[in-house]
Design a protein that fits this description.
The complex is a heterodimer of chains A (693) and B (500).
Chain A: H1 3-25, H2 27-51, E1 55-63, E2 68-75, H3 77-100, H4 107-126, H5 130-148, E3 166-167, E4 170-171, H6 176-205, H7 210-217, H8 223-229, H9 233-247, H10 256-259, H11 265-274, H12 277-296, H13 301-323, H14 329-353, H15 357-389, H16 405-419, H17 425-439, H18 443-468, H19 474-481, H20 491-509, H21 511-523, H22 540-565, H23 577-583, H24 588-634, H25 639-656, H26 658-661, H27 667-692
Antiparallel strand pairs in A: 1-2, 3-4
Chain B: H1 5-26, H2 30-53, E1 60-66, E2 70-76, H3 80-106, H4 110-132, H5 136-157, H6 162-191, H7 196-202, H8 211-228, H9 238-244, H10 247-257, H11 260-272, H12 274-300, H13 305-325, H14 329-359, H15 377-390, H16 397-415, H17 419-447, H18 463-481, H19 484-498
Antiparallel strand pairs in B: 1-2
The chains are: A mainly alpha (693), B mainly alpha (500).
Chain lengths: 693, 500
């Protein structure tokens, strides 16, 4: 019975391990086998949620005289909620891949890393301790690196960005292998902060286990008080948050995500919807309550949760502005993800700032669910659009609604959910975030959130308008003349994204019925000592807030409609001022390259030239040269003397055995071999003659 | 009295002329004989390890009387068992790797093969003997035996200015060894013996040795060993020696030999003079940190892949000292585990580089490579795993070794709080970002990107190279998921030294 929770994350990993073997037998077995393992995982996730009791299902892992760690699967509402979202959406993406990736190169590698990705994500969600979680956490990073760089031959069609575009002299178009590396390195910077925090927690608490960490807080001399005594409690919490900042692409580590769409669209969907970026939100959801209790004793709650809320709010706004000028369809969606995750982080931050912890907390997690569903749908549909039009630029699409009715409907439904139009699920969850900000009197966050609603509505409408409305672009017409008419996707691809779009609508329609029970279910994951508060019901304030956010969304929608549905879109020829600022991502990416990449490289170059080559190399080569000169001058190692001596030895030796007679090929060899034999004899003497005494 | 471990010394010794004889018949294929012979030490150590595990001290000893010096002892215990296993495994695998590599390097001269494999056997004997030794003089002898054949191997089959480079290597490490010898002789004088166990007993009372003398001896021994583990300032011999040695020897130098310096610090310095080492540990921690950063920064700007790996090795040796300098059981066990991780990772990476050089006209410049992943899938996958281990990535043994040694840093910082130790610990973790940087950059330059006209015809390496790569990769991953057997052994050693 206890095996079932383990199968959730081990099934995809087993699938990954078996992929190469399956590939040897038959490609079909490999493809369908990979999908089947994800399905098994999803089924077990649901089965566990409904049939397995809450608890920590452990096995022994590492035992030694200095520390012991068990590996365990933690079954609780938070992990079950996440695991089900991750597993089912991943399954749909895998189904989509069956057709989408047909004929691409490196398929064994693709299926291997996709299953590894899903398995690691589930591991990080289900792990019962920080160490095991970190395995999944880093595994996710590795798989994203491999999958973003899937087309590692860097053909031009797989690049991201506009070729030749530069910001501050830094090229802004990236090949897949660069984008993958960028993702890995940037998230790793956050992971280093996270790792430092884990080290500090373990050094003072002596455990990695979430449950024990929470329990130990209540004891005298707890890890929190020890850390606080060193003045390290708040730094530890903030460093811990560094991991989620990197993984979930929050400011200032957000720049990897827009370029991460160099991978296949199915990979983008997986990264943006089901795995990777959701990991950070999950981890804040997992450790946030524990830090809350830890920080509460020392009046440090506000700086920590305030930081989370500020970073979330700022990122939400920052990325939304960038999305309003993007040319590539997947880049719009990528900026949108950064922005939406910002919302979630803001909600989790507000949870700690308000008296109603559960309001912000559940709002953030429910938004995660809504977003996972509609964003997966958007990316999968966009993948098909890109495939059909053979371009990633929206301005080379246009008027696709006629030929791709179902795809455009699907994107419209998912887009409306992203904008937050009732009754889509995106409306409810985003609104509960805004309401949690308002109700806890965090009006600044409320204001930023509301402004972002407008931007979101605008960029989504813009994307839909440029891609699907109006007339077809010249590029699409050319394709049509070549006989490549835009057409609907096959069922294997269509069903996943259409189903997700419809689910986003359905979950919205029924939201009022299940949101209450679901919130109280999630609340059960929180430690009992946490001041929870109560979930506010439907009040007149709430209705007003609905009105305000619908109004803002409406304004953005109308602006987008007027600008991009009613008029043909042309790429602006002159880019300057605010547009250039937004287009170049507020120059943040270029600054990263300028300051960190170039800075570190030139510093290392300087060290190499002036210290390593200038001092150390010179020193040792001078010594070597002097020794050689000295020996030549003094005749100590005069070649004739040495050679003569060696010759004598070798001649003497060759009389002893036939073997040595063959040692005539070169002077040095004789010297060396006689030396070697000498040492050998010396050793034998020491071991047997001296030793026997 | 059984003659088990002595076989691990005697068989390679007998192997010296035997391999020479075989190479006159078999030429390059004498490498197979060397590889088979090297299985004997592996088996001997394994059996000794199994026998020792059932003993109360978890150690297996073979002692031979060795007057007037004392005893000539060979020991397999918690500390030496994992290290010996990995060394003898590497020796076996790299002998296989030498077969195609040295065929290309030597050509058609049987005598030259004989010489290479004879020196190879002698070199392996030196390393195994150093780790087995229980007597300080015996240790020193093997330590020197390790040096001399490697010097000739570089001088004979190296690249570039190999005479100058091998001489630099010899002078630096020899001077280091002599300073170590001074420390050993003073210790022997103070304790009245050079048998390590008796030395520990005789010097157990701190008052036997004046603290200044103790600091001097620890300083001298550490100086000598720091040359071996190439700490910043004493590292000048390393980059060129590693880069210009024939690649199988680079692999042995980097993966197996250098780290023995770290082993010796634990086995000799920290066991005999724990308080002396502790007194200097704060300085050592900073020194190690400088080495970690400096090595990584140098690696970041190299285009020659072997030079990159050389500087990377220097940086990794910094990790080993970093862990030891925490003077905690976590740190010490982490450092010794780091020896194992570095051995597998560097073994993989140098063999992979050798494979590329072999298949791609001896090319070492990364800017001339690209897109090799599809041409050499096994080499690429192994290099990938090796790099991940280097970066300390979970599911590779590198994660647990770095995890332990950094955890040691934070334990040290929080036992008795010190700002300096906190900062050092944090910076140590930060240094791993550089490792990730240069590793990923190198992987990208070599294996990804478009394949150009030059690389179009590159093929996968022969089995003598892929089998070692696969074996080492499997060990890397298995120890990364299930490190218990290694950690429990080293943890016991760490605890015995620190006493907590």
């Amino acid at each position: 019975m206890t095996l079932i929770p383990w199968l959730i994350w081990t099934a995809p990993l087993a699938g990954a391990v078996l992929t190469p073997a399956f590939a040897k037998i038959h490609p079909g077995l490999r493809n369908y086998g990979a999908v089947a393992f994800t399905l098994v995982s999803a089924i077990f996730a649901t089965l566990t949620a409904f049939t397995i009791a809450q608890g920590d299902y452990q096995v022994a892992w590492i035992s030694s005289s200095i520390f012991n760690v068990n590996a365990g699967v933690l079954v609780d509402p938070l992990s079950m909620f996440l695991a089900n979202i991750v597993a089912w959406i991943s399954f749909l993406i895998m189904v989509y891949s069956l057709q989408y990736m047909k004929g691409e190169f490196g398929l064994t590698r693709y299926w291997f890393f996709m299953n590894l990705f899903i398995g690691n994500m589930l591991l990080l969600v289900l792990a019962d301790n920080l160490l095991l979680m970190f395995f999944g956490w880093e595994g996710v990073g590795l798989c994203s690196y491999a999958l973003i760089g899937h087309f590692y031959h860097d053909e031009p069609e797989h690049w991201v960005g506009v070729p030749g575009d530069t910001a501050l002299g830094v090229p802004q178009a990236f090949p897949p292998s660069h984008a993958g590396m960028k993702a890995f390195v940037m998230t790793r910077i956050g992971d280093i902060a996270l790792l430092i925090a884990i080290f500090l927690i373990f050094a003072t608490a002596g455990t990695f286990n979430y449950g024990e960490l929470a329990t130990k807080l209540g004891q005298p001399g707890s890890w929190a008080s020890v850390l606080s005594g060193f003045g390290l409690l708040l730094p530890t919490a903030l460093l811990f948050f560094g991991g989620p900042i990197g993984k979930s692409a929050q400011f200032p580590l957000q720049e990897w995500l827009p370029d991460a769409m160099a991978g296949p669209s199915s990979v983008s969907a997986l990264i943006h919807a089901a795995t990777m970026v959701k990991a950070g939100v999950f981890l804040v959801g997992r450790m946030g309550p524990i830090f809350y209790i830890a920080l509460l004793q020392f009046n440090l709650v506000t700086p920590f949760f305030g930081t989370i809320a500020w970073i979330g709010a700022f990122t939400a706004f920052l990325a939304a502005t960038q999305a309003t000028v993007a040319r590539e369809i997947k880049k719009v969606l990528a900026y949108s993800t950064v922005s939406q995750i910002g919302y979630m982080m803001m909600a989790l931050g507000i949870a700690g700032l308000s008296a109603n912890f559960i309001a912000g907390y559940s709002a953030g997690l429910l938004q995660l669910m809504s977003h996972a569903i509609f964003k997966a749908s958007l990316f999968l549909a966009a993948g098909w659009v890109i495939h059909v039009t053979e371009t990633r630029f929206m301005d080379q699409m246009g008027g696709l609604a006629k030929a791709m009715r179902l795809t455009s409907v699907s994107m419209l439904l998912a887009g409306l959910s992203l904008i937050g139009i009732p009754p889509f699920s995106g409306f409810w969850t985003k609104d509960s975030i805004l309401s949690s900000a308002f109700q806890s009197s965090q009006f600044v966050f409320y204001g930023i959130g509301l402004a972002t609603v407008l931007l979101t509505a605008f960029y989504t409408t813009r994307m839909l308008g440029i891609t699907f409305a109006g007339k077809s672009s010249d590029h699409v017409n050319e394709l049509a003349e070549e006989g490549k008419l835009a057409h609907e996707a096959g069922l294997t691809m269509l069903v996943p994204y259409l189903a997700l779009a419809v689910a986003s609508l359905g979950l919205g329609i029924f939201y009022p019925f299940y949101s209450g029970p679901l919130t109280s279910y999630i609340a059960k994951a929180l430690p009992a000592t946490l001041p929870l508060g109560t979930v506010p019901g439907l009040t007149s304030t709430e209705v007003l807030l609905y009105g305000a956010s619908i109004g803002m969304a409406g304004v953005g929608l109308v602006m987008g409609y007027l600008l991009y549905f009613r008029r043909p879109y042309t790429v602006p020829t002159k880019v300057g001022g605010l547009r250039a600022f937004l287009w170049h991502r507020w120059y943040l990416d270029a600054i990263n390259y300028r300051v960190y990449v170039s800075g570190l490289t030139s510093a290392s170059r300087g060290l190499y030239r002036y210290i390593e080559q200038g001092i150390w190399d010179k020193l040792s080569s001078t010594v070597a040269r002097d020794v050689i000169d000295y020996s030549e001058a003094s005749g100590v190692l005069d070649s004739r003397v040495v050679d003569g001596a060696v010759d004598d030895v070798a001649t003497a030796g060759s009389r002893l055995s036939n073997l040595l007679r063959r040692l005539q090929s070169g002077v040095t060899e004789q010297y060396i071999i006689s030396f070697a034999i000498g040492i050998a004899l010396l050793l034998i003497y020491m071991i047997f003659v001296v030793g026997a005494r | 009295m059984t003659f088990l471990l002595i076989g691990a010394i005697v068989v390679p010794l007998i192997g010296v002329p035997v391999v020479y004889g075989f190479s006159l018949l078999l030429k390059d294929r004498a490498g197979y004989v060397a590889s088979l012979l090297s299985l004997v030490p592996l088996a001997a150590v394994l059996i000794a390890g199994v026998e020792g595990s059932s003993s109360p001290q978890r150690s297996y000893n073979e002692l031979y009387s060795w007057s007037p010096i004392g005893t000539f002892g060979l020991r397999v215990d918690n500390l030496s068992l994992p290290i010996l296993l990995i060394i003898s495994l590497l020796v076996t695998l790299i002998a296989l790797f030498s077969v195609p590599y040295m065929r290309q390097r030597i050509g058609d001269d049987p005598g030259r093969y004989g010489l290479y494999y004879s020196l190879y056997m002698l070199y392996s004997l030196g390393m195994i003997g150093t780790v087995l030794a229980t007597n300080l003089i015996e240790f020193y002898l093997f330590f020197e035996i390790m040096l001399v054949p490697s010097f000739f191997l570089i001088a004979e089959w190296g690249y570039g200015e190999r005479d100058k480079i091998s001489l630099t290597y010899f002078i630096w490490t020899h001077v280091g060894a002599l300073v170590l010898l001074v420390g050993i002789l003073v210790t022997g004088f103070l304790a009245g013996t050079t048998d390590m166990d008796s030395v520990v007993n005789n010097l157990a009372n701190p008052s036997t040795v004046p603290s200044l003398v103790r600091l001097g001896v620890v300083g001298a021994m550490c100086f000598g060993l720091f040359v071996k583990i190439a700490q910043f300032g004493l590292h000048a011999w390393l980059p060129s020696a590693y880069a210009e040695a024939p690649t199988p020897i680079s692999a042995l130098l980097s993966a197996a030999m250098t780290g023995i310096g770290g082993y010796a610090i634990v086995r000799i310095v920290m066991t005999i003079y724990p308080s002396g080492f502790q007194a200097l540990s704060a300085i050592f921690a900073g020194w190690a940190l400088v080495t970690m950063f400096y090595g990584s920064a140098m690696a970041l700007v190299q285009d020659d892949i072997k030079k990159l790996l050389a500087y990377s090795s220097m940086s990794q040796m910094g990790y080993i000292l970093f862990g030891l300098a925490t003077f905690t059981s976590f740190g010490i066990s982490g450092s010794m585990f780091q020896y194992i991780s570095n051995a597998t990772a560097k073994g993989i990476l140098f063999i992979a580089v050798g494979a590329i050089m072999l298949q791609f006209r001896g090319e070492r410049s990364m800017s001339k490579m690209g897109g090799l992943a599809g041409k050499m899938p096994i080499t690429a996958s192994a290099a990938f795993i090796g790099s991940l281990a280097l970066m300390g990535f979970p599911s590779t043994n590198g994660f647990f070794s770095e995890f332990l040694l950094f955890q040691g840093g934070f334990v040290r910082a929080t036992i008795a709080f010190s700002d300096y130790r906190v900062i050092v610990a944090i910076l140590g973790v930060v240094a791993t970002a550089f490792t990730a940087g240069y590793s990923l950059l190198a992987l990208r330059k070599i294996f990804f990107g478009p394949s150009n006209g030059d690389t179009a015809n590159v093929k996968e390496a022969p089995w003598t190279i892929t089998v070692p790569l696969i074996v080492l990769s499997i060990i890397t991953v298995v120890l990364g998921i299930y490190p218990g057997p290694i950690i429990s052994r080293f943890a016991a050693i760490g605890k015995a030294i620190v006493g907590a």
